[in-house]
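User: Can you predict the 3D structure for this chain?
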Amino acid sequence: VSPSGARALFEARGEILTVPAERGDTRNATRSSGVADRDPAWSPDGKWIAYFSDVSGEYELWVMPADGSPGARRLSEIGRGFRYRPAWSPDSRSIAFSDSAGALYLASLESGRTIRFDVDPLVRGTRFAWSPDSSWIAYSRGAEGSTRSTAIWLYDVAAGATHQVTSGWFS
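Assistant: Here is the predicted structure, written as C-alpha cells:
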C-alpha cells in the first residue's frame, strides 16, 4: 500500500501494477512485455517504487518514479542469481535486499551504488528491520562459529560494520 493509502502495488504476470484504493484505473507501471518484474515495494516517502527485473538477463534491483513519469534506473549489477525482498530505509534513501546465495546488499538511491555487506549461505530471503533513523539494519543469519544456529545481527550503515548482538541460542 502506498504511504498515502491511495494506491496499492501488485505483481502479476511479470508486470508491476498500481491499483486504486477506491476509484480510478489500474496502471501498469512497468509495461515490459517479455520481462519478469517482481517484488515491488513503495518507498516510505511515496516517491519511488523498487522492484527486481530480469530485463538485463539477470534479476537486478530497479527503482522508478511512483508517479509514472519516465526515469526507471538499475541500482545493482550483481549478475547471476535470484534476489529477494527489497526493504526501504525509513528515509527512502537506501534499499536492503538479499540473494539466492545468501548475500545481503545495500543499495543507495543517491549514489546508485550497491554494496554487499554480509553473507550467510544458510539463510535465503532474509527479512530486514531498519532503525527509525535509517542508521542500522537488523537481520538474522548464522551465529559466529556455528553451522546450525542463527543469531540477530546489526549492520551499522555509516561505519559499514556488522555486529552479532545475540548468541546463537536466543535468536
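Residues 72 and 145 are 42 Å apart (CA to CA). The chain has a mean pLDDT of 91.
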